[in-house]
UniProtKB/TrEMBL annotation:
Domain of life: Eukaryota
GO terms, molecular function: palmitoyltransferase activity
A Pfam family matched in the record: MBOAT
Source organism per UniProt: Graphocephala atropunctata
Keywords: Membrane, Transmembrane, Transmembrane helix
Recorded family membership: Belongs to the membrane-bound acyltransferase family. HHAT subfamily.
Lineage: Eukaryota, Metazoa, Ecdysozoa, Arthropoda, Hexapoda
Membrane topology type: Multi-pass membrane protein
Cellular component, GO annotation: endoplasmic reticulum; membrane
Localization annotation: Membrane
Protein known as: Uncharacterized protein
Segment forming the signal sequence: none
Transmembrane regions listed in the UniProt entry: 12-31, 63-82, 102-128, 135-153, 201-223, 243-266
Length: 281
């Protein structure tokens, strides 16, 4: 069924109303930010930047942005290089390349114990797949989540790592749990549960330890992810390089816009200061 086509005038009107609404709302949030008494507020704002203070109340943003900009690029480059070389030699080895980079990253930044925990989780879910038990998938999912959030915290106190690294470790292990659970349920719900043991283990390994989505997602079900994992090597033409570069520039542009907006729109700080919100009337 084809989509209905709206008149150009109507679409233009919607765009105009939407743009005006966003601008009006943003301006009012900006005005609300002027009500803050920065001298009486502790860690919610950073130092001045041309007379403006930065909203630091969004802990996730202040944790993940430096991670994305300064920690991940070299590892992403290594992931792309190793995966492409492996794909050129033999696409069947791509899952191994996926997992190798991720496990090395975990060892370097979180420690060998965390890497062992991640690999053990994959092995346990593979064993459950061989047993073909949906109940065991859910039964082991909860303990792994508890270990990720509480068990690893006890161990973390002896590593000397920062709180930001602990946050990244917890988030990534819960993402791993989601991927393992989803993969297992998909396999058990389809005829693919009869796949050979080695191939199934490789599929689970390459899917759950895929570096670009291991820490921040997005979540992709294996049905959509799997067909691309073993695809043949494709030459890096000028068109492909340009597409990759444009996607990267688009990400950097919106990251810069978001970062700059924190100096003018105190959206997150307003959530934690209800007295200031109440003064808006």
């Amino acid at each position: 069924m084809s989509a209905s086509k709206l008149p150009v005038f109507e679409v233009s009107l919607y765009v105009l109303v939407w743009t005006a609404s966003i601008c009006y709302s943003s301006y009012n949030v900006y005005l609300a930010g002027k009500l803050f008494d920065h001298t009486a507020i502790g860690d919610d704002f950073s130092d001045n930047w041309y007379g403006y203070k930065k909203d630091m109340a969004d802990y996730e943003w202040t944790t993940w942005l430096p991670f994305l900009l300064y920690t991940m690029p070299a590892w992403v480059a290594a992931h792309i290089a190793l995966t492409e070389v492996t794909r050129w030699i033999s696409p069947q080895g791509v899952p191994g390349a996926h997992s190798l980079i991720t496990l090395l990253f975990i060892i370097v930044h979180f420690g060998p114990a965390c890497a062992l925990f991640a690999f053990t989780q994959v092995v346990v879910y593979y064993t459950i797949l061989r047993l073909k038990s949906v109940a065991l998938v859910w039964l082991f999912g909860i303990p792994f989540l508890l270990l990720s959030c509480f068990g690893l915290q006890e161990m973390w106190e002896y590593t000397g790592k920062s709180d930001q690294q602990f946050t990244m470790m917890v988030v990534s292990t819960t993402w791993l749990n989601l991927h393992c659970t989803s993969f297992s349920l998909e396999m058990l719900a389809s005829a693919r549960s009869n796949t050979s043991g080695r191939r199934m283990f490789y599929d689970l390994l390459g899917y759950s330890l895929y570096f670009p989505t291991y820490f921040l997602g997005p979540f992709i079900i294996y049905t959509n992810f799997g067909p691309y994992m073993y695809r043949p090597f494709k030459r890096w033409t000028s068109e492909r390089v340009c597409t990759f570069a444009l996607s990267l520039l688009r990400f950097l542009f919106w990251a810069a816009v978001t970062e700059a907006s924190l100096y003018f729109l105190y959206i997150h700080a307003l959530q934690y200061h209800m007295t200031t919100v109440a003064r808006l009337g």
